[in-house]
Design brief:
Order of helices and strands: HHEHEEHEHEEEEEHEHEHEHEEEEHEHE
Distance between the termini: 24 Å
Helix content: 25-40%
Number of strands: 18
Number of helices: 11
Shape: globular
Structural class: alpha/beta
Strand content: 25-35%
Radius of gyration: 19 Å
Length: 340
């Protein structure tokens, strides 16, 4: 189940209220939406964005660039600037469709009502999934921004998250096919395209293969660290001599799993929900610096719900730019965390 603890929300709200900025110098939630738009460059097939180091104007620019269509699947949408950008695209004649998680109407209700009133095609998610935890923005059927974080400005100033803009034609086609089915609430077995990782279809198997295939190093940055199969695989990697590092949140219910991997030789650092950086990311880098290096980023947490019961989306790629951006950010977060 996605972590929405009172401690996390209280901590993030305190940060937002105080207008604090992270060590990376990111604007507070109150000002992020007003920042001048930044383009998300796509020199090749993939580009990466790091939050809160970059602000969410890159997302607004992506929405604003649409000339034909915008399809959004979002667990939490509570960002007035994003909502207004979607409405503006609709008024410009662009086809705009949005799926919001049905179990979070208290968070999504205002966005749902505003979009509906403006004539945007908006629906709550299918009951076939425990949660629709996917976070994706697809523009013109040509590129999809796959996010680890929600479009919820309450947490922008404090949450470590990643986004990968994917222009692989097979990936985007698969994302659009699943979107159409989920929007219509019809069943579908998702295609992985060239790089995709879907829940509840194959995410556990794909992530296990990534972890089990690591030969030299494994860097894991995860909000939730509680899926026994994945934790066992990380433990096995450490036991076979792979250098394993984990960045997570204050142990709470994950302490026994942290104990398990550290006993095998892994190094774990954590962050507190009431201090400057909240580790909301879900990312894995395997064998960085080698020819077989791969990186995962997406909405999937290490939990049974996330892997087997929710609608989730991530991707695994060997793109050098995505690898270096996420690995360098991970290294900074690992260096600044509290050793477990």
């Amino acid at each position: 189940m996605p972590l929405t603890s009172l401690a996390r929300r209280a901590g993030a709200l305190l940060l937002a209220t105080a207008g604090l900025i992270s060590a990376a110098g990111t604007a507070s939630a109150a000002t992020a939406g007003a920042a001048a738009p930044q383009a998300l460059p796509l020199a090749g097939t993939f580009s990466t964005v790091v939050f809160p180091d970059q602000d969410h104007s890159v997302v607004y620019s992506l929405i604003n660039s649409a000339t034909k269509s915008v399809d959004v699947t979002m667990y939490e949408l509570r960002d007035t600037t994003a909502v207004n950008a979607l409405i503006a695209r609709r008024r410009a004649g662009v086809t705009v469709r949005v799926i919001l998680d049905a179990r979070h109407t208290s968070v999504n209700g205002a966005a749902y009502s505003a979009l509906k009133a403006a004539g945007v095609g908006v629906t709550y998610s299918s009951s076939a999934f425990v949660y629709t935890h996917q976070k994706t923005v697809t523009v013109d059927g040509a590129k999809s921004l796959i996010l680890t974080g929600n479009l919820d400005s309450t947490y922008y100033s404090s949450s470590r998250d990643y986004g990968v803009l994917d222009a692989d034609a097979n990936d985007v086609a698969a994302i659009e096919q699943v979107f159409a089915a989920d929007y219509a609430k019809t069943s579908i077995t998702p295609s992985d395209g060239d790089n995709l990782v879907w829940s509840p279809t194959d995410s556990q198997d794909r992530l296990l293969a990534l972890i089990n295939g690591a030969q030299t190093s494994l860097d894991v940055e995860e909000l939730e660290f509680g899926d026994p199969a994945l934790v066992d695989a990380i433990t096995a990697a450490a036991n076979r001599g792979v250098t394993v590092r984990v960045v997570g949140m204050n142990p709470s219910s994950y302490g026994s799993y942290f104990d398990q991997v550290t006993a095998a030789g892994a190094k774990v650092v954590t962050y507190s929900s009431t201090t400057g950086l909240y580790i909301h990311a879900k990312a894995i880098v395997a064998d960085y610096g080698t020819a077989s290096a791969k990186v995962f980023a997406g909405s999937e947490n290490f939990s049974d719900n996330s892997l087997n019961n929710n609608r989730e989306l991530g991707l695994i790629v060997n793109d050098a730019g995505v690898l270096s951006t996420i690995e360098s950010t991970f290294a900074t977060d690992f260096a600044n965390g509290t050793p477990y």
